Amino acid sequence: MHPTLPRLQKIAFPAIHRGVTRTLQMNLGYLCNIACLHCHVNAGPHRKELMHRDTMQLALEVADRHRLSSLDLTGGSPEMNPDFRWLVERAQAQGMQVMDRLNPTLIEEPGYDWVAPFLAERRVEVVASLPCYSQANVDEQRGKGVFEASIAGLRKMNAEGYGQPGSGLLLHLVYNPNGSFLPPPQERLKADYQRLLGSNFGIVFNELYTITNMPIKRFGSVLISQGKFDAYLDLLEGAHQDANLDGVMCRSLLSVDWQGYVYDCDFNQMLGLPLGGAEHKVPLSSLLAASLTGRKIATAGHCFGCTAGQGSSCGGALT
Ligand code: SF4
Ligand code: SF4
């Protein structure tokens, strides 16, 4: 159990239930070429946890059984899993739309020059993290040199056609605050990103998703060590909007960890909160013969991170 969980579980969140589940989000492991301060997964270059191909196969069977139409790949850096390409091809062969959560600095690492052309060839939708258009802010949050490598990676994605008008190759960027505050309005920030990344670096993209930082894992620990944990929770709870409850991603998404256990979302996965609030971890195999629609969702104080202000989901603001 993550140390922030008991504190989060003391905070009540409105009861929510599943609608129709459409997306399978798979965490392919915690290996990443960088180690960002805000990372809610504690990913980094020395992590060894990686999903095996057998687990991927079982997850695809569950997706087929529940007619899940989208596959959302995350990590760590999902492309660092040796079976990444196999999985993308299998999922597409069974008719799923695939989305990859790309950390664009990976493209600049030795041995990963296949990433941009492979994603383009398979027409995978890409959501790339770039927490700011300012070099100083990105390097402070993600590490020295990360901004430069991100820009170089994004340029290679643009060269493959990503983000270019009419190409159909979708490239979205993700912003998250570099501290314990809520994101600014998404549309206004998108206009700033487009203007500054376009004029300074010639980079084009489709949408900007603003995502609220979650008070869990590395970011949660930073808040605790700085004595800001309770104040941040108060900020999230105070900014809660009921209107965001319908759009929270757990109502339509199933999250699976690298070992094949299932959760209502990636954040619950990181907290060790099993699907539906079950007492023990729930294996993928149990979903081969069970329904998901209408099930209760496991919630705690961190859920206000999804409903605060404009709301926040893996597809950005909700309202
Ligand atoms: S936030 Fe993303 S890029 Fe940064 S360490 Fe975590 S998984 Fe890697
Ligand atoms: S944190 Fe997860 S369970 Fe809670 S509202 Fe957000 S998506 Fe749903």
Shape: globular
| DSSP strand content | 5-15%
Name every ligand kind in the structure.
iron/sulfur cluster
User: What is the structural class?
Assistant: alpha/beta
For the sheet with most strands, the description reads: 9 strands, mixed
3D structure, described in words:
This protein is 32% helix and 12% strand. With 319 residues, the chain is α/β, with parallel strands linked by helices. The protein has a single domain, classed as TIM Barrel (Alpha-Beta Barrel), CATH 3.20.20. It has a nine-stranded mixed β-sheet with strand order 6-5-4-3-2-1-7-8-9. The protein is globular and about 50 Å long. The mean pLDDT is 92. The site of one iron/sulfur cluster (SF4) has 12 residues, from loops.
A few lines on this structure:
With 319 residues, the chain is of the alpha/beta class. The protein has helices spanning 5-9, 53-65, 84-93, 115-121, 135-142, 146-159, 186-201, 217-225, 229-238, 266-271, 304-307; strands spanning 23-27, 70-74, 97-102, 125-129, 171-175, 208-210, 253-256, 261-263, 282-283. The longest helix has 16 residues, at 186-201.
List the helices and strands and how they pair.
Blueprint: H1 5-9, E1 23-27, H2 53-65, E2 70-74, H3 84-93, E3 97-102, H4 115-121, E4 125-129, H5 135-142, H6 146-159, E5 171-175, H7 186-201, E6 208-210, H8 217-225, H9 229-238, E7 253-256, E8 261-263, H10 266-271, E9 282-283, H11 304-307
Parallel strand pairs: 1-2, 1-7, 2-3, 3-4, 4-5, 5-6
Antiparallel strand pairs: 7-8, 8-9
